[in-house]
Design brief:
The structure holds 2 protein chains of 2 kinds. Chain A is mainly β. Helices cover about 0% and strands about 55% of the residues of chain A. Chain B starts with a strand and ends with a strand. Classes of the chains: A mainly beta, B mainly beta.
């Protein structure tokens, strides 16, 4: 079977750091992506990890450990506008070219 | 102008009606996808297409059909709509590498 697990909700205060974890079990794995979605709007791409380790993009970082089937998204210096849903997604088998299996999403609430 | 557009943005219809949702893109991507999103269930892949001559079923294709009229256009049809097809529908595109998918604004469909 295919499954991705991430917390359903996370709450943090403005200026803090928050980590959203994702564990996955899939029949094939090529990489892990993260997407952000505000209030039912279009999901937007945040980051991609194809190899183990940390990828940093501004305030956001993403980590992958393929041996542990685990990754996380790290958001630093939280801002109110970071309140959104965050989805991890496994990219299956490269020659399928970007077919994604999404987790159910983590709703992040940033408080003042 | 938006790179990925969807029409209509909102639609209310009745059980048994045939509905078509349309997606157009100006990104020049070969790969296009249709997803549905239900509260708490993340995004689930309905159909995907890697080029005009290629159509593939996703996780939840029953009750849906698609047409890839051109590189830039990918339509989703509900042959006989039923209430449990009430959802938010997203179209997405990606290039050959598939690391990032670009989503349209979504169509909110209600089947009464």
């Amino acid at each position: 079977g295919q499954s991705l697990e991430q917390p359903s909700e996370v709450t943090a205060v403005e200026g803090a750091i928050v980590q959203i974890n994702c564990t996955y079990q899939t029949s094939g794995f090529y990489g892990l992506s993260w997407y952000q979605q505000h209030d039912g709007g279009a999901p937007t791409f945040l980051s991609y990890n194809g190899l183990d380790g940390l990828e940093e993009t501004g305030r956001f970082s993403s980590f992958l450990s393929r041996s542990d089937s685990y990754g996380y998204l790290l958001l630093q210096e939280l801002q109110m506008k970071d309140s959104a849903s965050y989805f991890c997604a496994v990219r299956e088998v490269y020659n399928q070219g970007g077919k994604l299996i999404f987790g159910q999403g983590t709703e992040l609430s940033v408080k003042p | 102008d938006a790179d990925v557009t969807q029409t209509p943005r909102n639609r209310i219809t009745k059980t048994g009606k045939r509905i078509m949702l349309e997606c157009s893109q100006t990104k020049g991507h070969d790969r296009m996808y249709w997803y549905r999103q239900d509260p708490g269930l993340g995004l689930r892949l309905i159909y995907y297409s890697f080029d005009v001559k290629d159509i593939n079923k996703g996780e939840i294709s029953d009750g849906y059909s698609v047409s890839r009229q051109a590189q830039a256009k990918f339509s989703l049809s509900l042959e006989s709509a039923i209430p449990n097809q009430t959802a938010l529908y997203f179209c997405a595109t990606s290039d050959q590498q598939g690391r990032e998918q670009f989503f349209g604004p979504g169509t909110r469909l209600t089947v009464l």
